[in-house]
Amino acid sequence: MVDELTQQNAAPQVSAQEQMRQLGQQVNDMIELLRAQQEILRGYGMNLPSTSIDALRRARAQVEALNTQVTSLQSELRQLRGLAETTALINSSLDTSDVLNQVIDKVVQLTGAERGYVVLRNEDSGELEFRVARGLDREALSEDEFIISNTIVERVASTGEPVLTHNALSDPRYQGQQSIVGFALRSILAVPLMVSGAVIGVVYCDNRIRAGLFKDHEMKLLNAFANQAAVAIQNARLFTSLRARLAEISDIRTLMDNVFSSILSGIITLDSDNFITAYNAAAEAITGANAVEALGRCLPDVLPNLSDEFRLALVHAREAPIELDMVMETPTWHYWRVKLSPLLDAAGASEGVAIVLDDLTADKQREAQLNAAMRYMPVAIESMRMVDITTLAGQEREISVVCADVRGFSSFSEGVEPEACMQVINQYLSRASDSIELFEGVVDKYMGDAVTGLFNTQLNPQQDHALRAVRAAVAMAYDVAELHNTMPADQQLFYGIGVHTGRAVLGSVGSAERREFSALGDAMDLSKLLQENALRGEIMVSQATYEQVTDLFEFEALTPRNSKGRADFAVMYRLVGRKRRTAESPRVNG
Length: 590
Fold this sequence. Notes:
alpha+beta, eight-stranded mixed β-sheet, five-stranded antiparallel β-sheet, 17 helices, 18 strands, flat, disordered N terminus
């Protein structure tokens, strides 16, 4: 018996649609048979009742109608099966891209659309963004094929209601919409992707040729599908976000492990009676006390010179963090920065104090040197940390000089009030100073509407000083052009810029009360002469500078407009632009 049932289940099943086709064929055969019999009977003077053939014709019509209904039901059944399969499929992946691709493929399959799109709301900006697009052939569409009705997409996204139009061109709701008219869109179906009542995106599909492709059935089907797809998409998004967060936490943990393994601050922990329970190597170096001898002893016994301020802070640190700077004699004088924090157990109860020590002695000494150096510097720069103060007395070295002067400022200043004039020129000088400091140059001085920058001085030693100077000049020109975007036309002035590389004597000049760091020599004179030869917006460089940067910038050789009688000034180079960097071109810092 079991074998018979197995064989029956294994036998090919004839579809209902095929059965209806066979039944229709049988009715047609009967009609033809009756017609043949009627011809024979007519030969004998007899006839069949007319109702016989009419009844068969009505039966054929009913069979055809039933066949159409069966076909429609089978199509709906396939769609519902596809919906059930898709629900399981899209929830089987937690990769956002994979889920989106599965969603759009099934949208095109379920609706028979020519094209399908998934538009998602950006979680940060809230803007709607194309995430995936497919054609009927299941091939991805390129960006130039993103031809949709933004009006319909935005309406669905804002209302959370689906939109169905059988012929968008004749739909009165969208008359005059440029995208619909221009792209000749016809059948359009769009449904929201909703999670917990919030619209996270839109599923949009259309057909540009066939009107009436989508009906209420397809809209309900797609809406049901979208509800499932939205949950899958949101789950994938959350998983992606969680995975990124976990990766970030893992990176942070790795970083913290590396930090603690190479920490330079002294770490000391005390129990509730101020006995030392931990004492790292950095604490040994800072305090001079051996960790083996310090562990298990009371802190005041290990460091007997603790101040009263520190002892008081040690008491209050059991309740709240405290930070203080102190001077210690161990045996020489040292400057410490001390941070004390409560050491809490798992229940949050205080069980001691954690102390972080930083030795600021070298920093204090350095600060004193920098304070002395700042007497010579108009603007502080990061590279002063490496300054040898003794070199400020005077040194000859090769430097690169940027000399910039505002063109047309004199005539401009004649027509404005002094306060407004100073406001405008300060904006230009600020841009010039920022450009020089961006490439770690030293602003030498301001002379009215002119500014000079120095590279490779004792205060900012640089091997690539010529390149830095040219890049500072380029940045200056760009910054001035950007400044023009916020200024009226009558205030839009330009720099003429000269750049030269040569030797100069650098050091502090002036009296005991007022001193400045400056450069003296021919390098300063030639950079100024180049600047005077530059027209508004032009950057002129000398032969010496050109030879050091020609691999990275394009120049045009020119005869000086004014050489002031200098025989060694026969050519200058106007900067045209930056050369395209190839794989062999050197990388430049700064």
